[in-house]
Structures are given as C-alpha cells and as structure tokens.
Amino acid sequence: MALRTRGRNSGRTSGRAVTRTPRDTAHEGFLAHAGYRWLKVAVALSVLAVAVYVLTDPTPRPNGGTFAGYLLGTIGAVLIVWLSCLGLRKRIITAGPYSLKAWTSAHVWLGLSLIVIGTLHTGFQLGWNVHSLAYVLMMIVIISGLYGIVVYARLPAQMSANRGEATQPQMLEALRALDRQLDMAAQPLGKDETDLVRLSLEQCDVGGSLWERLRGAYPGCGNGRARDAVQGLVNAQMRVGKPDPRLTQILFLLERKDAALAQARRHTAMKTRLDIWLYVHVPVTFALLAALVAHVLSVFIYW
Amino acid sequence: MSERFRIAIVGSGPAGLSAAAHAARLGLSHVLIEKTGHLSDTIYKYQKGKHVMATPSQLILRADLEFEAGKREAVLGTWDSMTAAAGVNVRYEAEVKSIVGTGEAIAGSVQRIVTRKRDGTSDTTEVQRMAPPYRMTLANGDVVVADTVILAIGTQGNPNLMGCPGGDSAHVQYQLDDPAAYNDEHIFVIGGGDAGIENALGLAVDAAQGNVVTLVNRSAEFSTAKDANVKALMAARDAGRISIMAETTTRAIEPGWVVLDTRDGEVRARCDRMIARMGSAPPRGFVEACGVEFASSDRLAFPKLSAVFESTAPGIFVVGALAGYPLIKHCLNQGHDVVEFINGNTQLKPADEPILEAKFVGLPGRRSVAEWLEYLRTNVSILEGMSALQMREFMLDSEARLYRAGEVVFERNAPGSSLFGIAEGQVLVEVNAADASVTVPLGRGAIFGEVGLISGRRRGATIRAASDCVLVEISRTAALKLMSAVPAAQREVTRVTTERSLLQIFKAGLTPADLTDVIASAKVETVRAGQAIIKEGETGDDIFIIQSGSMIVEKAIGGKPVFLSYVPAGSYVGEMAVIDGGPRTATVRAAVKSDVIRLGGAQFRALLGAKPGLLARLREDMASRTQLNNFIESKKDSFGGVVEMYTGVANFLVDNGVGEATDVLLIDEKLCVGCDNCEKACADSHDGLSRLDREAGRTYAHLHVPTSCRHCEHPHCMADCPPNAIHRGATGEVYIDETCIGCGNCQRNCPYGVIRMDKVPPKKPWLISWLLFGQGPGPGEPDAKWLKAKAKPETPKKAIKCDMCTGQSGGPACVRACPTGAAIRVSPEQFLSVALMDRGGE
Amino acid sequence: MSFVIRQIAKRADGGDIIRTRSIDVPEITVGRGTDCDIQLPDLGVMLRHARLSLLAGGLVAVEATGGIPLEIGGKFLNRAELDVAGNPVIDIASHRLTLSRGEVAGSIAITAERVVADAGEAASETGVFSLRGVMPGKRGLAWAMVGVVLLAFLALPLWVFWHDAPEAPLTAAVKRGWQPDMVWTSGPLSTAHAGLANNCGACHQTAFVSVTDSACVACHTPDAVPNHAAADRMAKGRLISTGFEANVHKGLNLPEGRCASCHKEHEGPQGALMVAERFCTDCHTGLSSRLLDTGIADVKNWATHPQFKATVVKAASVTAPRFERVLMTRPPVEQSGLVYPHDVHLSATNSVANMVRKQGLASKDGALACNYCHVADSDGVRFRPIEMEKNCGACHDLAFARDGGVVRTLPHGKPEQVAGIIRDFYAVRRGGVELAGDGRRAPGVRAVPLRAASGEAALAGIFGEKGVCSDCHAVVDSGAGRGALRYGIAPVTLADHYLPKGDFVHKRHETYGKLTGDAACVACHKGVTTSKLASDVLLPKVEQCRDCHGSAKVATNVPATCDTCHGFHYGEGVPGRPAGDGRRHGRVVAGAGRGAAGVSAQVGR
Questions:
Q1: Which of A15, B688, C177, C548 is the most exposed place for a label (fewest CB within 10 A)?
Q2: A5/B738 touch (CB, cutoff 8 Å), yes or no
Q3: Which of B593, B652, B675 is nearest to B836 (CA)?
C-alpha cells in the first residue's frame, strides 16, 4: 500500500503552514478513552434495555418472541457482528482518521453491555436448544474478554519491568551465548561432568509446555538439574580441598543461564497469559456467529 | 624512465573512466592512472549484486560509456569491455604520490596550505605554483609527464596506513570484502571506529570459522563508534568471541606475529592477518599539494573551479565527486565534457543545461541560462563570491521563482529549511503574528528564511511579495555548500540570523538600529551536548539565544539536580541575572549539540535602559519562569518522589535524542501488550516494510522510546545524500523520496539507527484470504520464509524510514493502530513539560 | 600409509568450511580431547573415543576406547575391521566419520562432519514466546467450532425438515425418538401438546410460513371448538391492525386471527392456554362501532366492565316461558310464579326452625341451610334444580288420611289426579272417615274436614286459599261445576342461570374473605334473609366482583382476565356455554297436564 507518491521536486516545501491532523497525545488507556465515552454509551444502552424489558409485560411470559424480545435481539445481533469486526479493523490499515484505541474501548464496553441485552433477550429462559447455545457461547466470549481486560490492565507494567530493555531476540541470544560458553567450557571434562552439561544444553526447553508456561514452573528443566548436580560436585570437592576451577566455571555459567532462563520464562509466562484468552475469545466468537445464523434462521424457518 | 602524455587522468572512477574513454575516442594521447588492480574501485567495492541507480533521471547521458541502472557486476562489466574496446591506455596498481609543474614559476600564484594538528594548532606552508607540464611521481618511483591532468580521485581518499615497521607486509590489509573468506586465523583489527568494529564482528560472528579475532583500539572507549555497534562488540566480548585490547598501539608487525604496546607493557601475539581500519585521510591534502586551492577551510568545501572544471593550478582539472558531483551520471558527463574543453571545444554546453533551462522557464526577461546565473549572482548579495561553475551546481539544488505582488512566499509555522534570496523586487515580513499589518520590508539582495535554515524549526513569520519579485530558493544542502564555499556568505547569514532572532524574540518595537552594539558583542558559540552555558550560582550576566539545538534548565534542589524546563531553539536564557543582577538561579545545559549566540550583558543592559518596553516584556517571561520554579520546588517539598521521577523521565528523554526531535514516538509500557500492531500497521501502510522497532530502544519508568524516527530538527540523515532524496515535508516530517539510490549513507549517519536498507517485498495476498485460510504471511512485514519464496532477487535495496504517514489523513498509522493507546507521537515541547509531573505521580 | 582428515564445519550462513590435513601415522585417535588427531567438539563424544589403525589390504581396525560402543553401519560394536573400499560410516554422537580411499595410493581419507544440528540453536522467537507451538491455531479452532455448530444446529435439522415430511395424522405423539430439529425448540410445549415435542413438522409445516390453523384444526375440530362468532360477523367485528404493526405482520408473514395469534406455544406447560386480555379487548373495545347490530356492550378492560344483565323469568309458562335480560343497576324483578319467602325459611326461631330441628334437616345454627335447597351440581359451577319432593317435601307433605295402615298422600304437580283421588275417596266412604291422627301437619295446613259433606268440599279445602297448595302456588279457581276440574295451579318457571354469558364457579367462592358456608353465600347474595318475595333477584352486582378481582383493596389481588369468566370458544349457539352442554337455562317445574310419569312415581312410592 504505497499511500504517498511524490515527484522529484515536490521535496521543496510548499511554504504553506499545513496544520497537522490533530492526534490524541494523551497517554490514556483504552478503558478510559475519551473520558470513558463508551462506558457511558454502554450504560445508557443497558438502562434502555432494562427499561424496555420492564415496561412491556408480555403474555404468557417475556422471551425473544415478544416485541421487546425482537428489539433486544436485533440490537444484540447487530452488536455481536460489529464487535467481531474489531479483528478485521485492527488489520486493515486504512489512511482514514480512525483510532483503534477508540474501537477497542467501544468493543470492550459495548461488549459488556451485551451481558444485559443478551440476557434480557432470553427472558431468562434457557434450554437445550440452539438459542441457548448462542447465548452460552456469547457469555463465554464475554467472560474470556473480561479476563483479557484484566490481564491487559495488569500485566504490561510487570512485563516491561521484567524485560528491562532486553528484546525477545536478545533474551534468546543471551541463552545461546551461554550455551556456547557452556559447550566450550565442558570440552575438556570427562563423561560424567559433560553429561550434566548436556542436560542443560539438550534437556532445557525455554518455553515449555502450555501447562509449564501457565504455572511458570519448570520442574523437569535440564538446566536446574544440571546446576544442582554440579553444585553437589563442587561442594563435595570443597570439603576435601579446592574445587576444580573448570567445574566452578561451569557452575557459574549454569547459574547465569538459570537467571537468563528465569527472565525469559517470566516473560513467556506473562505473554502466555496475555495471549491465551484469545484462543478462547476468537474461535468461540466465530462459533457464536455460526450459532447466531442458526438461531435466526431456525426461528424463521420454524416460524 | 618517464613517458609524456597530452592528458593524464588520475583515478578510474566514472568521471576518470569516461574522460579516458572520450580521450581515447578523440585519439588524444592519454594515460589513465588507477591505484588498484581494477577499474572504478569505489563501485567495485559495492557488495556483490548491489543495484546501482542512475539518477537524476532527466539528465541526458552524453558520455561514451554506456550506463543504466543495474547490478554492480553488469555496470562494471560494460565499462571494462567498453574501455578495452575504446583502447584506453590504463595503468593499474599505480598510485600518484605527487604532481608538480615542471614549467617556470607562475608569478604571484602561491598556494597557501593550512594543516591542523590534533592539539588544535595549525601551521601554514606556501607552495609556489609551476606551469605545466606536470610531473607525476608514482608510488613505485615511475614518473609520468602530462600537459594536463584530470583529477578524478573522488572523495574517499586513502586509508591511513600502518606507520609501524612491517606495516607494508603482505598480511596487512585496509579493507575487508568478505569476512567469511577467512578461517582459523589469528586476526587483529586495528581501530575502534564503526568500520573496525563491524569488520571484527563480521569475522567473529560465526564460531565455525574458528577465527581468533582481536580488536585493537588506541583509546580506552569507543567514542567515535555508534552506540549499537559498541553494544554488539561488548556482547561479543562477553560471549568470548572477540578479545579487545584498549589503549593499545601496534609497535611492529612480523610475519605471523604482531608486537603491541599495551598499558601494561609490550605484548607479542600470533597474527596471521591484520586489518587496519584507522579511518582515511581525505584527498584534500594531496590535492592542495598539487596547487589546487579549496573554496574554504570548511570540511565540506570543494576546490575552486572555473566553468570548465579547471582548478587554480593551470592545467589541472578536477571532476567527479571531488568537484562536488557525487552522482555517477554527472561524473560520466563531466569526464566527457572536461576532455572536450581541454580539446579546445569552448562552445560545449554542460549536460545539465536543459535542467537549468527548465528552472528559469516562466521568469520575466529573456535570458540564457548563463545570463540568469550571472544575474542572480550579482543581485543576491550572498551569491557574489561564487564562480560560474559553482553557480551552475548551486542552481541544480535551488529554484528561481517569480512571485506576484501580494503572493505568500511562506507562512508562519510552515516547515522549511530553505533560504531565500531576493534577486528583484521587495517582500514584506509580517513580524507580528497577531497583526499582519505590522511588516518589515526586505529589498533586492537581501535574504530571508535563515531561521528555518539554521534552527531547523518552522518558519517564524509570514513572508509576502510586496511587488512582483524574483526569488531564488536555496535548498538546505545548497545553502550549506554555499556557506562553506563562500566565507562571506557564512558571515552574512550569521549576522542576519543574530539580528533577526533578536528582533523576533524581543519584539517590543526594536529596530536594527537599536541592536547595533548588542550585535557587535554577539558571539556564535557551539555547545556540545551536555555542556553547560550557565551554571547555577555562578555570576555572569550574558544572555544566550539558542540558535539551533535545544537546552534544558536544571536547578539543584536538596542537592539533586531537578529538571525545570526544556528550552527549544529560537528562545533565550540568562535574562534573570541581567534584570536583577544576582547570581545564576539555575543551570542551563545543551540537550544536543547546539549553537548559541552569546550577547554581552553590559550592552544588553544598556539596551534595556533605552527600551523600557523590552524590560517589561522580559519581566513577564521571567515571572512565568519563576512561577514554574516555585511550583516545582513546592512539589519537591510535598512529595519528592514525584519530582525525582519527573526529572528522571525528562533527562531520560533528553538522553534519547528527544531534545533534537520534532516528533517522537513514545510507548507507555504500562499499556503496551506487545501485540506489535504498530509495526504491522507501519509495514502495511508503507509497502510492506516497518519503519519502527517497538521492542528495541530505551525504557525508563515504563516510558519506552522505540527505535523510530524522531524527525530531528537537523536531520543527520540529510547530511550526505548523493541524490538529495531526503526532504522535510509539509507537516515537518523527514522523508526519503523515490530517487534514493540505496547508498546507505543516511543509515550510517543516523545516530538512532532508525533507517534500514531493504528490498520492497512483493504484494501480499488479500487480507481476508489470510484471515480465513491462512494464505500468505498475514498482516505486517512478511516473514523471511515467505520472502525467500516470493521476492524477486534483483529488486534494489532502498533506504526506508518513517515518513510520519504523510498523505494519510489519519496521521501516523502506528498511533492509530495501537489498540490500547500505549503509542503516542509527540513533540518535545508538548511532552517535556510539567505535564510529565502527572506521569511521575503514577 | 597416511590418513587424510577432512573436517567439515557448517557456516552460520549455510556454507561449508572444510579443513583438510594429512598425518602420516599408522593409527589415529578420535575424541573430544584436544590431543586427539580427529577432535570432535561434541560433549556426546568421550575425551578419547576411538582409535583407528591401518591394517594391510585397505582394512582399518576400529576400536572404541571411551567405553561407549561405536555405531558402525547401524550396529553397535566395540571393535571392528572395516574395508575402506565400502566407504564405511562410523557414527559418534552427533558426528559422522566416513572412510574412503584417498587420492594417494594407500592413504585413507576420513571425512568428519556434524550430522545432527545443535540443540541450543533450535529455540526460535515465536517458538518460545508465542503460543504457536503449544496451542492449536485459532483459525483451526474457529473453523472446527463453526463446522460443528452449523452441522449440528443448522444442516441436520434442515435435512430432517426437508427429508421426512411432517407426520399425518398429526394426532398426539407419533412413535419416534429424539429428532435433530428438536434443537430448534424455543421452549417446552404445553402439556396438551407435549406429545408433539419430537414432531416439529406436525405444526411447522412449511419453512418461513408461520404455523397455520390447518395444523391446529386437524385435532381441534370445529365442533369441539366452535367459532367465536359467525365468520362474516367475526370479519366485520375484528379489529384489523394497520400501519407499522400490519406491515410488520405482513413482512414477517404473520397473518392475524390465527389460533397461534392468541395461543403462544413453547411457553411452558400452561403457555398455550394463557391468552393476553388484550386479545379480547382489542376487538371488544370498539365492537359496537364495527358491528352495529351487536347486543354486546363495549368493554375496554375489567375496570370498565359494564353492569351485569340478569336473565330473569318475565312470564312463567309450561310450554314457552319468557325470559328477559335486565340491567341490574336497579334490582330486577322476576315472575317465577312461585311463592317462596326466604326470610321465613331462614329464620332460626319460627316453626320452620322447629320442623328443621325435629326432622334434623341440614341446618346452620338453627336455621335451614342454604344448600338444603341449593345443592351444588357436579362441577360446582351452579346448582341442581329445585325439586318439590326433595327440597320441600319434608315439611310440605301432601298426606291427607290414614287408611288402615297406609297414609294416603296426594301427588305433586298433578291437580287433576288430586281431584280424582279425593272424589273417589269420599265416594267410597259415606259417613265420616277417621284420618290419620298422628297430628303431623305442615305448618298452617288445616286438617281436611272430618266429616266433609262430600269430596267436593274436601277439594275446596285443599285447593282453597287456606289449602295446602296455596302455600307455594297461586291457585286458579275457574268456578267450574263439579266433575270438571275447577281448580288450576299457575305455572312456575325457575331461572336456572341468571348470567349465562359468563361462568361463575361457586365452588371457588365457598369462602368469602373470612366467611364460610351460608355466611359466605349471604355475603354476596345480600338480603336473602330478609327477602319476603320470590320475585326478588338477589344477585351480586359487578362491583361485588371487583371487591376482590383486580382490586387493590384485597391483599391477595385475584387476577381478573376476561377468560376468568368468559370463554372464547363457547361458540354462538347458546352463549356462555360450550355447545353440546345439555342444560338449558330455564325449566317448568309445576303445572297441570303433566304426564303419567307422576302417577307411576306415586305408585313407586
């Protein structure tokens, strides 16, 4: 997308004082965007929904089939479709003056208002049918989203504190460097010692399984085992005399690698927590859209 | 033995080659003297397969050598074959050591050569010029005699050689073409500059090569090298891949060994190869020694040349980059032209004639290009010092325009770094922002726009044509060249700047007349970053006007320096002492390398005495500043943490070049979830290449300055751009246009490492098809794998940098595309204010 | 006799670095140790891993010296003799040695290279920091879920809907199990329709067409559920929605006036029967303006429900009694032809009370109980008809003489027979007769004269204004001569249902506030205890109902929708009653010319 094409001499400034398109220079999070504009909208919407629900008293009982039901249902469906468009919006980079922050803000707050709208639409009738399926899926999406809001609000600060100024490639490079040094340092050693070092080199998965990432605990980590074992050796040697300097060097490296691993893994753990919910939020959203289609179609087919 | 030729061409670059080829075609007796074993060394040294550009496109190629944009190999290939075909008499491996006239002394023509030494002292030697023919002594002792000499040796100059014994031995080399070519060697890299560090890293990066690399640096730290390079070097050292010997010099070089002088004595070490990267001496010294005079002592200055490229030494012609023409096409044409001239063709019009003609189209009065140039030269005061050739070259980078009466030349706050000269007519300066009727007239010969030129900031006033007038707009590059070429112009610009900035800052009905003695006392000083011009508690009453760069004001509170404010160029400091006499109340130090005008306190006080209005005005400013000080001190008393945080953040930002920025991207890491949508947005809105690296860069108190362009007031990248492809756009953004030749100068010059050289990737499949079926690499920059599969190998690399998303109505995509509001783009004035205090509070 | 050793190292950018050297010794060592001839920088290799020694005839002896067997051609051996000609391969940890003949005669070339990539380098940025590796992709998940949902909840039901046509007849549950399209249900069916739960097609017959009456009437035949009114009158009377609502219905293909317009299904057990009041009021609010000749008053809602109109007897008659609906704003008067003072019968002190006590009739603190005469009928809605023998006979008996052991009793409702019996009686016995002397007498009844001159005289006594009959009936004396019947009884018609257009279920009202039993009855039927005339119509007015129904006064606000009292499907034949209900709302209980049935009844006694 080449959005600008300039001629050779257009480099000469026009001399016009072109006022820059005003932009939002406030460090204001997506929740607080524009003084909680979308929170207000969402609350208004919910209040309206409740009003509609309370003020109409349908016989035999309130549900999606009443006037209020159809109204809330339509609002809800439109909202759901629009909300799911965020995924598209954030990826289509158009030239226009839009702010993804504003979109996120609206996405979050209006999404929450769906709890009210959707629930009232059901008229508190749930059953084993496509309609309740859609509702349940919607609630799953919203709840996962809530989790997302929480981690988005809390983790970034911790994450930047943990990573300092190290970038992800740097973290990995540091580990590789340590591995190389370990490999070199271990060259002159005998089998038993080298096997320990190989533990650290070959049995040490930085990221680890999903479970390990979530718990942030890596019991089977080769490096940890190697470190303990080498520590043991060194201690033993210390009791009888001076420890082998090569071993102490390796121990030192293993400890450094431990620290590096710890940082990288804290980073991973936090990134995992920042990402994991999307693996529920996004797929279930699509399931929800499908269920929504089935829900609406079924209603009209068995009219 | 010695041979004699009509023409001797030194250097086989495009210019020399083309000259030789033309000479050969005209059947003139000639010799082409090339230092190395191959033609056109500079291009030869381009990395393999580099795409060579042919700009400016509208320039007609009239040389005998064919040339069109293409691969390095292709270009060199054609040239080699064509030189061979033309029967050029080339002499390889021949380095000219000296060129001296053999004729009788030319009366009154003495060349004065000033050489500066490290300690700042300089001595002057005088050389009596001798008439042609010239004797050229080659490195190997041979002698070549020629009636005319064409110097086409370019600007690269010669690398500084190893002075120590054995410095000439075979395993000492001065460049490194392919680091991968050497294995299992003990390699010493001499010199801690970027070149040296990059070479050393290149040799050591791959452990498999088994090289033992040592970097030898004369001083203790690597002051001349880029931060990124130094970091990488230290990392390599910690990883045990490189050993560094600081404060070390080579004493002797023996086959297989090297002897070094270290802090703790002499060291003898194995050395199979020595790569000396100790910088290169510009050819200037050699050229001056030949009797060629330069326009000024300025680094950027070029030799004085006649319209036919003849230097002050009769019979010695200078062409190509050395003459100030870095582009290949220019060089080729000049090579052709200069031979024509030497061959007695005086009618020949330079190749750039049509370009210049185009520039004068639509101006009143039917004048030829030559007449126009002369007209401008004589009418615009600062151009007087220039030669006809300089005028031509100057005009290539400049514009002459006709403005009708009442037409606006530029508006207040319009960005622009060009200088204007009035060749005819009169313009009005609207000095008062509030009231356009308050104007100051400027007449023929005067210049304006110098504030933009000097400070790199937006225009200070609106300029209107009073009558129909012909103005010449001098681009920043051209202006800088001009000032270095013509000292008079330099002085004039400085004077005008001082006077006008004074008038602009303290309006209060001042007239130039009032200022005469203040200006007389004015001294322009250059301040290093971090250097203080005013120290708290010291006495002194000079006033400083910041001409370029910016300052920060600090005050020691409770023993700690507390950041008070950020002072951009165009404002002044130090007035308090003048008004109430006391010692300095705060410290003012340069945020970046800055130029300040120092005004004598005494003279200024006199001025204040004469102008009560001015005094009142100053008191106002002072009041507001004192208020700020008090505010911050009060904060300090109530909760110190906040102020420290505030100071910390401010200093951090200044350290990261925000001081010279006009618009910088900041990321609040309290909000950033690391989705990299900013990078993706950047890539997707700029032909698939991201101009920013979110993760990299410094962080302080959760405030992150990612690697992305700050759009400096004086863009370092602009400094040396052969096709002059880097400009400042209408909204103040610094961008690279499509004439970029991919030379990489800007990348090297950028201290913040925000420019990358890369190929434009092919078009990606439709987003939806990725979204639904995972086709293609998805949003953002395509991954290497996909590129390998899809990209065409011969696409040229170009310099890529942030253009602040000009032409996108929404503004910078990175900011628009941030889902959490972590990313903002701000100018330092906006951000480096007390508003920061709120952040500090968090 | 020499080894040529070619050690190949991989360059980071892919290329190979080949280091070749030749050593002129009969045997070489392989291992990690720096002193080995072939040094393999690989921690998997022992310091001294193996020894290779030249044998005659291009054979090489290989021996493991590190205590780890060597992998030679896939076999693990401690020592082996290899023929170089076959370019044998020795694998040591992640390295591989390939032996071959060198260029120089008799020399052995050994190529050593790493064949297994270094583990440490494997970790990629995405692999470590993103979930790519450890989670199934979002896209995959999304597709899978979408697929499942669409298949199970759209495709399958649709297939069922199209491929097995709705069962006919639609009656009750067709024997079939769970059906895929049951996931489309919007809620449980009403109990009546529960059987259709697995047979959606029974009602939902065509896609996008709302359930039509045809589906309903298949079971609910018109004579079981008669029309509310004649089709043409309905058409005239119904309120046709207009504007937006009409368009919505039209657009959504929801014709009005269908069964389903009122009866919402999938609303739980009672759902289908709960009908919104507005379905009535919509039409009845302005009915008179559309159906000009209607006799039914407009009703906006319960609050404005018009005063009741009681259907009272205006002219009692054996054959054609005349009824009339009279507005109850003023107390209506009825001509039932009966004489019955409620006050006398409900007194706790008078002779009636004595009789009650003596005979132990149903009573409430001394007075005769309401339900002695007004006996609730089977469904507790209204009351059994009053019958003389059952409800009056206990006191008003018609015995006139003891004849030997038999007490002679006159039949009720057959005046001509009475005349006959008396005449015969006197004709047989000249001279006086002795009458039953037990003194049992209905109050105020005079004894039949002992020595009546003749039967005529006795008859005059019975039918005379002091006679037995006149207690309850108006007696007509035609004055006709003997032989022919002289006396007649005025016909009696008792109203059976005063408010036939609605139903008032008495059973549900047996307690009224705190009152129960007779007190409860009297609470609504005010003035009964003081009523002297049978012509009094002692019905409560509509206000009486409002005291409880839809009133804020009562804590337990009893709802009052239209169908509390009225039914839509009662049809027009007999307003207010389901067609086919045998009962009529009026009956002649007494009068001359009743058939022989009465007699036989006598005989039966």
A1: C177
A2: yes
A3: B652
Report yes or no: B698 and B705 within 8 Å, Cβ to Cβ.
yes
pLDDT digits (tens, 9 = 90+) for B361-375: 888 878 888 889 889
Low-confidence residues in chain B, pLDDT < 50: 1, 840-842
Q: Residue B373 has what DSSP assignment?
A: H
- For the cut 90, the answer to whether the pLDDT of residue C279 exceeds it is no
Q: What is the predicted pLDDT for the residue at A23?
A: 63
Res. A258: pLDDT tops 90: yes
Token reading at C561: 């929708």
Q: Which residues of A fall within a CB distance of 8 Å from B721?
A: none
List helix spans (H) across B60-142.
72-86
Residues from chain A that touch B732, judged by Cβ atoms under 8 A, are 20
Under an 8 A CB cutoff, do B410 and A15 touch? yes
Residues of B in contact with A1 (CB under 8 A): 684-687
Q: Answer yes or no: are the C-beta atoms of A129 and C186 closer than 8 Å.
A: yes
Are the C-beta atoms of B9 and B19 separated by less than 8 Å? yes
DSSP class of residue B510 equals -
Query: How far off is chain A from B588, nearest CA to CA, in Å?
Result: 28
| B820/A152 touch (CB, cutoff 8 Å), yes or no | yes
pLDDT of residue C579: 37
Structure tokens at B166: 């054995």
CA A82 to CA A45: how far, in whole Å?
A: 15
Select from C129, C132, C139, C143 the residue whose CB has the most chain B CBs within 10 Å, as the one to mutate to test that interface.
Answer: C139
DSSP characters for C277-338?
A: THHHHHHHTTHHHHSTT--SPP-SSGGGPPPPEEEEEEE--SS--EEEEEETTS--B---SB
| CA distance to partner chain C, nearest, from residue B183 (Å) | 8
Inter-chain contact B209–C15, Cβ cutoff 8 Å? no
Extended beta strands in C429-474, E state: none
What confidence tens digit (pLDDT) does each residue in C95-132 have?
Answer: 899 988 888 777 888 999 888 766 555 567 777 888 88
Q: What is the 3-state secondary structure (H, E, C) of A70-112?
A: HHHHHHHHHHHHHHHCHHHHCCCCCCCCCCHHHHHHHHHHHHH
Q: Which residue has the higher pLDDT, B47 or C587?
A: B47
CA distance to partner chain A, nearest, from residue B31 (Å): 38
Q: Can you say whether residue B247 is alpha, beta or left, with left for phi > 0 and alpha for psi between -120 and 50 degrees?
A: left
Question: Are B547 and B501 contacting, i.e. CB atoms less than 8 angstroms apart?
Answer: yes
| Bridge partner list, B823 | B667
Instruction: Specify the pLDDT at position C586.
Output: 42
The predicted pLDDT at position B842 comes to 41
Instruction: Report the DSSP pairing between strands B172-173 and B273-276.
Output: parallel
pLDDT value of residue C554: 66
What is the number of other CB atoms lying within 10 angstroms of the CB of residue C385? 14
According to the model, what pLDDT value does residue C258 have? 85
- The CA distance from A106 to A36, in Å, is 10
Chain A residue with Cα closest to C42: A187
Collapse the DSSP code of B30 into the 3-class scheme (helix H, G, I; strand E, B; otherwise coil) and give the result. strand
CA angle C458–C459–C465, rounded 5-degree value: 105
Which chain A residues are closer than 8 Å to B731 by Cβ?
Answer: 18, 20
A153 token code pair:
């609000």
Note which residues in 251-270 of chain A have CB less than 8 A from chain B: none
pLDDT in tens, C229-239: 888 888 888 88
Q: What is the mean pLDDT of residues A157-170?
A: 88
Complex ipTM tops 0.90:
no
- Specify the residue for token string 């009152």: C515
Which range, B257-261, B779-783, C22-26, C73-77, is most confident?
A: B257-261
Return d(Cα C101, Cα B134) in angstroms, integer.
66
- Decide if C149 and A290 are in contact by the 8 Å CB cutoff: yes
